[in-house]
Amino acid sequence: MAEPHAGVWLDDKTHQLSVRVYYEDTDFTGVVYYANYLKFLERGRTDALRCAGVSHAEILKLDPPLGFAVRKINLEYLKPARIDDALTIETRFKAVKGARLMISQRVVCAAEVLVTADVEAACIDLEGRPRRLPKTLLDQVQRYVTG
Predict the structure, then answer these.
(1) Cα within 13 Å of Cα(49), Cβ side
(2) What whole-number distance in Å separates Cα of residue 88 and Cα of residue 108?
(3) What are the contacts of 110-116 at 24+ separation with CB within 8 A?
């Protein structure tokens, strides 16, 4: 039985995941602690991959087992999110090159962009060496690449 997805693909190129800001996500002022945006963005990327047909649990079963690691991330904090805000994490796959996946993300609240991120993730084996995405996975992700 297929697992229900928390996020959805819009226009076949933008994945959206809803995230609520909880007390644990904030600092003493009720504003989201800056490092927690990394968690929100990770959830968005993971769910986008899952919705594209790439399961982290399944790629760990490949020979060799594979995973993804963030190699580089560039964040721009534009406005703060606050406790109880309903956020949308938008994820777009920009390119797949060898072992690298280039991703653009935004954290949005009530149509306002709060955070932007450009991410380079690498497909790696369990020893941390870069590995090209297997053709089946590449084909699944390639359908969603915006170019």
Answers:
(1) 22
(2) 5
(3) 110/86, 112/79, 113/78, 113/79, 114/77, 114/78, 114/79, 114/80, 114/81, 114/87, 115/37, 115/41, 115/75, 115/76, 115/77, 115/78, 116/75, 116/76, 116/78
The distance in angstroms from the start CA to the end CA of the chain is 33
Out of 11, 12, 25, 27, pick the active-site residue: 27
Entry pTM: 0.91
> What torsion, rounded to 10 degrees, do the Cα atoms 83, 36, 110, 5 define?
-110
Structure token pair of residue 32: 């989201």
Which residue in 143, 147, 145, 101 sits closest to 122, CA to CA?
101
27 part of the active site:
yes
The edge-to-edge listing of strands for the beta sheet with 86-97 is 8-10, 14-20, 86-97, 100-109, 112-125, 66-77
CA distances 119 to 14, 70, 105, 136, Å, are 15, 7, 8, 22
pLDDT in tens, 57-114: 999 999 999 999 999 999 999 999 999 999 999 999 999 999 999 999 999 999 999 9
